[in-house]
Amino acid sequence: MKILVLGAGPSGLTVANRLSEMGKDVLVLEKNSEAGGLCRSKQVDGAPFDIGGGHFLDTKREKVNQFLFQFMPESEWNRYERNSQIFIYNSYINSPIEANIWQLEIEEQVEYLKEIAKAGCNTGEKMPDKFVDWIYWKMGKKIAEDYMIPYNQKMFAEELNYLGTYWLDKLPDVSFEETLRSCLLHKPYGKQPAHAEFYYPRKYGYGEVWNRMADNLSDRILYNVTVKSINFNQKSIRTAEGESFVADIIISTIPWTEFNELIGMPEKLILSIKQLKSSAIETRYFQDKLDTKAHWIYYPDDNLPYHRILVRANFCSKSRGYWTETRKERIGMFSNDENKNFRFINDYAYPLNTIGKQEIMTELLDWCKNNQVFGLGRWGEHQHYNSDVVVELGLKMAEMLGR
After folding, report:
1. How do residues 130-141 score in pLDDT, each as one tens digit?
2. DSSP, residue by residue, 334-350
3. Chain Cα centroid distance, residue 265
4. Are strands 373-375 and 249-252 parallel, antiparallel or unpaired?
5. Per-residue confidence band for 387, with pLDDT thresholds at 50, 70 and 90
6. Hey, CA dihedral for 43, 46, 52, 55, is it positive or negative?
7. Which of 92, 114, 283, 336 has its CA 20 to 30 Å from the CA of residue 64?
8. Sign of the CA dihedral 268, 270, 271, 275?
9. How would you class 43 by CB atoms within 10 Å of its CB: exposed for 0-12, middle for 13-18, buried for 19 or more?
10. Can you tell me whether residue 68 is helix, strand or coil?
11. What's the predicted TM-score (pTM) here?
12. What span, in angstroms and rounded, lies between the C-alpha atoms of 345 and 140?
């Protein structure tokens, strides 16, 4: 075939559908029995359960939304203003914490403001290169130790200083002046986090739109096919089932660490791939109804196994209860009773933004591109992208290849 796409998650489905619209010969290989990747949904307790955790369609990218509405019209989506909260000091405040400490007791507000005023970014210190150091530099000692460090340790790993600082544009940017103003005027100031407004299907889980995109491709997707090697010299891949596929162009949206062989790739690049890190999470369903209007809640408390919960009854039709997100290494903290609940392990959940990763991926992707193999999406580019971002990237790649 002309173009071979590895993986039928959001990025793979986007580039394949757009290239098909342009009349290109495309085939998609997917290791699971259904499409959607991390954005798949299952029926649990009579309602959708999103196995990959909290995935929503951001409203900001109009071109992305209009593309997806071709498969699932806007009338089939609800639009929400984000309500995300943090459980801290035995109470709930809105996220991000820097813009909402005014919701805490006045004594706590004063302590936070004192520490933020002394933070390195407000005293002229140079921005550090390591993530933990940056937290102290940006937010001060109290936010660092009460929230940011324990939460990120729960979500990513106990040791955080191997993470760099190049990815922090994903985090909301709230200055000391804006934090002070929010405390004085009792309203948030500063840059809002992702999904300030988002779409979620009226009747289905988030996986529905990706199922429809897969249906649109029909027999141009092969399921239950596990790719194990790429031969760059022959522009071919080999599967665990013993099949081979040859194409003019290969687009990979799967983790680079999943390949057993990368034939024809320089040894230096193969060794650099082994340095890429990621985290695995478990999602688990609880049928208890929570008395909250929040869509999701962050929990920095180390005594709780999970780092956040998604209150699906507040955005998912005909559902009750909530589901948790827990880093795989912390699953054993659940009680025996809780082990009876529906749960799902995502072995590849979050690419970790380790120091040096940007240089590795730039060199890797540039070399592959020169050999007509393209990395795309969260795993093909090893970046912590949301689904709206990978759709946008898939559309751009299709336009580039379809010329």
Report:
1. 899 999 999 999
2. S-TGGGGS-EEEEEEEE
3. 28
4. parallel
5. very high
6. positive
7. 283
8. positive
9. exposed
10. helix
11. 0.93
12. 35
